[in-house]
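User: Let's play a game. I give you a shape written as tokens, and you guess the letters that built it. Ready? Here's round one.
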């Protein structure tokens, strides 16, 4: 764990107008200025320019919530990784469960988007996680392992340095139901061992594996204290500066 930098990333989802984004970022800046972990905010496309402007010279990094796999073309309403990097956006979330659930994202398209983001020089927050029925069927580790393997197809060991994996049990996202710290640690550890088999121990040991799913100021310390939990991907609690800052503090 000491080998890995903790990363706390906010996922704003489809929230915040530009004035609201500005207020949140201004509130957040002083609260996380002394963070010992990396701090990322992933914001709607419409807020990227605002976020980049307001975080210049600070320790807050900016990410998008998705990107397309093609460099350009007839893909109405999509945004390419190159469009993001040209703006200065460093991070991108790929394969969030809401994309998988509501927008037809598959393991194969996740892999294509991961490839495109890496080719553009971005850092990827790759989300994997099981549905409630899959956990009940006892296939959590297989599902998360398979999602990880397919998403990483064609990714070299060198490129893996630009990947963070976020374990996000779908039943815990936005539900207020958090995985226990032992459940999170167990699956994060499984993901790390899958990565070890695909690459090697050094690569797996260096990989940041986050937990996401109703992480908040009250439960962050317990979750982040676990061996394989190297940070968090935060939805709801990233929308309020004091809540997000408390999670950042718990990771520091
Ligand atoms: C997420 O969407 O990545 C997430 C973890 O959401 P929440 O924290 O609201 O459960």
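Assistant: Ready! My guess for every position:
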């Amino acid at each position: 764990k000491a080998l890995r930098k903790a990363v706390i990333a906010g996922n704003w989802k489809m929230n915040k107008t530009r004035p609201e984004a500005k207020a949140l970022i201004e509130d957040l800046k002083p609260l996380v200025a002394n963070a010992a972990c990396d701090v990322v905010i992933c914001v709607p496309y419409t807020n990227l320019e605002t976020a980049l402007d307001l975080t210049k010279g600070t320790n807050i990094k900016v990410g998008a919530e998705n990107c397309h796999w093609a460099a350009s073309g007839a893909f109405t309403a999509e945004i390419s990784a190159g469009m993001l990097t040209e703006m200065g956006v460093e991070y991108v979330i790929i394969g969030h469960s809401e994309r998988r659930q509501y927008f037809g994202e598959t393991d194969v398209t996740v892999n294509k988007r991961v490839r495109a983001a890496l080719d553009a020089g971005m850092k990827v927050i790759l989300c994997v996680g099981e549905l409630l029925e899959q956990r009940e069927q006892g296939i959590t580790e297989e599902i998360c392992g398979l999602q990880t393997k397919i998403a990483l197809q064609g990714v070299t060991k060198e490129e893996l340095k630009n990947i963070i994996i976020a374990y996000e049990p779908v039943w815990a996202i936005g539900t207020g139901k958090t995985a226990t710290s032992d459940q999170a640690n167990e699956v994060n550890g499984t993901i790390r061992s899958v990565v070890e088999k695909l690459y090697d121990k050094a690569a797996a040991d260096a990989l940041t594996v986050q937990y996401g799913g109703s992480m908040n100021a009250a439960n962050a310390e317990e979750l982040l204290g676990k061996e394989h939990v190297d940070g968090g991907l935060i939805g709801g609690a990233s929308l309020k500066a004091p809540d997000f800052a408390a999670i950042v503090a718990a990771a520091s």
